[in-house]
Amino acid sequence: GDEGATPPDAEGFNRLLGMAVREPCEQAITSTVALWHWLWGTHYPFDANWVRARVTEAFDRSYRPEGIGRALVASLCSPGLWTAQRAIACPTLVMHGAQDPVIAVAQGRETHAQIAGSVLWEIPGMGHIMHEENWVELAARVAALEASNRFERCFFVRASRFLESRRRSLLARL
């Protein structure tokens, strides 16, 4: 984690970390469906059968709970992300569920404040899961960012930085 960033909710983090414990098939599927329900939010209908089918497919394809543990620990121990956000120069949409039980809404707002010119989209009733009901609006919001002049400037700034780094690398080889 980074100094100054709002830490993840301890209960939420521990519930996610519980997914890193290997369980028998049916128990793992049942506990993952329950976790999804907890992450879902209250505004959107929770279709337990649909979620169970997705979780079962994921389990059958590749059940590797150890990877979840490694990813969660890495997310806490990776310094620099908070600071790096300040360097983002491209149009950025910060989307956050107002009922996210893992990452506090305050952290979504802090992320928005870190990224100059970003747009904050706080979604009432949404937890930590993106819902199909939001896809059309998400696409429209991203398209609006792309249409902005900032997007074009960002592309050229990034391209010129890349070319400059390549030039320096080539010169260093001479």
What is the gist of this entry?
The chain has 174 residues and is mostly helical. Helices cover 60% and strands 6% of the residues.
Report the uncertain regions. Answer: none
- Number of E-type strands: 2
Provide the gyration radius in Å: 20 Å
Main β-sheet, spatial strand arrangement: 1-2
Largest sheet: 2 strands, parallel
Strand content: 5-15%
Query: Helix and strand succession?
Result: HHHHHEHEHH
Q: What is the helix fraction of residues, given as a range?
A: 55-70%
Describe the structure.
With 174 residues, the chain is mostly helical. Helices cover 60% and strands 6% of the residues. The protein has helices at residues 10-17, 25-40, 48-61, 65-77, 81-85, 105-114, 135-147, 149-173, and strands at residues 93-97, 119-123. It has a two-stranded parallel ribbon. The longest helix is centred in the last third of the chain and has 25 residues, at 149-173. The protein is globular, with a radius of gyration of 20 Å. The protein starts with 9 loop residues before the first helix and ends with a helix.
Write the layout of secondary structure elements.
Blueprint: H1 10-17, H2 25-40, H3 48-61, H4 65-77, H5 81-85, E1 93-97, H6 105-114, E2 119-123, H7 135-147, H8 149-173
Parallel strand pairs: 1-2
Helix pairs in contact: 2-3
What key attributes describe this structure?
mainly alpha; 60% helix; 6% strand; globular
